[in-house]
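Field reference: "sequence" (input) and "structure" (output). Example, homogentisate 1,2-dioxygenase:
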Amino acid sequence: MPSSEFAHKEKYRYMNGFNSYHESEAVEGALPIGANSPQKPPYGLYAEKLSGTAFTAPRHENQQTWLYRILPSCGHSNFEPRESSTYNTNPENKPYEKIHHIPNQLRWDPFDLDETVDWVHSLHLVAGAGDPTMKTGLGMYIFAAGKDMDAHEAFYSADGDFLIVLQHGLLDIQTEMGRILVRPNEICVIPRGIKYRVTLPQGPVRGYILELYQGHFTLPELGPIGSNCLANVRDFQAPVADFDEDTSSDWHVLCKFAGHLFQAKQSHTPFDVVAWHGLYYPYKYDLGRFNTIGSVSFDHPDPSIYTVLTAQSDHPGTAIADFVIFPPRWLVAEDTFRPPWYHRNTMSEFMGLIHGQYDAKTGGGFQPAGASLHNVMAGHGPDATTHEKASNAELKPSKVGEGSMAFMFESCLMVGVTDWGLKTCKKVQEGYNAESWEPLKPRFKRPGPKTVENGDGAGDKEGALGDKKQVPHWTS
């Protein structure tokens, strides 16, 4: 690596840099010079500001983008509830469906592909915490779709930022700021409120989503690591401006609002942004470019060294959401149990597998497109098979995870599981504990009794301990 080997060639251009101030125009001269909202923007465009943070957020947190579009976003009919009896990704509002807060370790078989639904209807909330109406917490989703969104449909979430982890297929995403191609081993983040349309050029898709209800994703601090490594700023890619000119077709704009689906009609395309500039935009990242850090002496460092993106709470160092990966890497630690140690964590850990075999779970139960959840203080670690192998392995330099990519959504919040995740999907492995940890055997052996002898006098120095002629007298 410095990048993944993709089966499908890239088809779009991008601008590089995480949280970089970008500007892009599909028509030369469409961006105003020296002003954001001139009396008459170039080419008769409308200026529209898209705010991802409060106007008065600190400068280093402030995320705003100016859009220059053919018609403003407000030109639509009233939003009306759509499929209100069936579409709900916020179960706390549904009296007959609730979040289950349980301490059990959970693991899911691979989730099924579904060729009957489009992107919007493929979203299934598996677990989560908090409330999007209060902009607190997060949601963890599985998606599995088999159809393009309608040619005149767009979708956005008012609830939070979508971090999309594609496991199978190909996503061709048309956003207001431009087009993004997402392949397995790439992630994509689409911030709250940005409209997009998803097509599937290679058929059915499947993957995972972390929706962040509060704040936005940032890069973790590097501390003593220095100025580089982990996910480097230059490797994040933002789309270039690309627009459609359509002011006469009927469009439906779908909105996920407080977990429910709404729809508005308009007579023009929402993808009419001719130019834009700012800090609030969608982006993607190739996980193969992650620069892994590890121990070169002894012991296994905390998995926080594999954090790609984070969203901190108001307590520094404690994340509402971390996105962590376990990429191919070298292990060289001496006299060390090299897989992750057994642990109980104040954080909740939701894991998924994009491809390959996760090196801490070699028993076969943790599979690509499956998942696991180890909630707050639930004990977990390597399965019995992995422990046996790692305890007896020759400690020479070895590369683990080749051809594999596992990831983790981690949160300081206690995560609840939905009815869909616990029952409806029918993917929960009932024998997870029995397979993984119950086979572990006690290995403890008491040391034998110690005996103190007074020596045999042979060759002893006179007066030394052990000299038969000098019996010690201990006092307390």
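The mean pLDDT is 92.
The chain has two domains: 18-98+113-287, 290-431.
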